[in-house]
Amino acid sequence: MPDEAPTVYADESSNSGENLVDPYQPVFAVAAVRLSAVDAQAMVQSVLDAVPPRQGEPKYGSLAKSRQGQAALMSVLPTLGEDAASAFVAHKRFMIISKMVDYLAVELAWAAGHDMYADGSAVGLANLMHLAGPVFGDESAYEAMLATFVNAIRPNQPTTLDDLFDAIEAYRRTTREGLDTHVGRLLAARWHAQDLVDLIDARKIRDVLDPAVPCLIELCRHVGAAIGEFHLVHDSSKTINRHLPLLLSLDQVPAVTPGLPAQALPVVDITFADSSTTPQLIIADWVAGAVRQVGQAWATGTDDDPFVAQLAPLAERWTVGGVWPNKDLITMPRRI
């Protein structure tokens, strides 16, 4: 029986790995496109014909720096509809506090018999901390806490758990009554943090802060819901390659929340290709780059760029989800 599964191509933009505090790359995006080689090559050639020959490989980052490149991109990107392109985006600074909630507060609550994922309080607490943290406590102390967490969790860094919990306590002392209780949840999870670091040091888990894998999983789920199972071709990626066994066996991973078992990814297989010779991956790079640039403008309050204004409607069309702050999701976690 012939294989009728379509092929989808994916690429990332602005992946600094686990360094979520990189000031020059505050937003990450991954995009997927479904185009024939002929159509994708025609789009790539159209852009190449519109820019100087010295352009070289038509990467989004270089094209978006010149007016000619911007105009060339805008001559083809609007032709990509929701059925041809989609993207998932991550606000890295928000992702840091989300990971702190996941690995500290959620684990503490679970040990006390409460599932913060089941009632939405994990997401609620992350949003509360992100939006209120710098306002109802000292902003510099809050930022220091985030940076110390990242450096304490990343392997081969000199930052220790003592440094991390000193930073959490230093921030807690600046917070208003009410918020200090929630910060106290993080402080109370020292043993859980030690368990996490021990697993990282033993190399039993890797890339715990890297947005590439979780964002790709969510993007694949969205694509699969629309077209069913598909072959995935990803631009060369050490992180994705390292986690291939996990990606291809998600249905065998223990459920985070009882009663909500993990589901297999809707992918037949995952292979890698070179974006310089695969036109669909070039288009995926453009989509990811455009979504990342718009997201970065929104995240940093610098959305007055005319090119960003042109890209914004396209980014909204393509973006299917993200790790992004939302004040409407704030909920008060119950007392543990």
From TrEMBL:
Q: Which domain of life is it from?
A: Bacteria
Q: What is this protein called?
A: DUF3800 domain-containing protein
Q: Which organism is it from?
A: Micromonospora sonchi
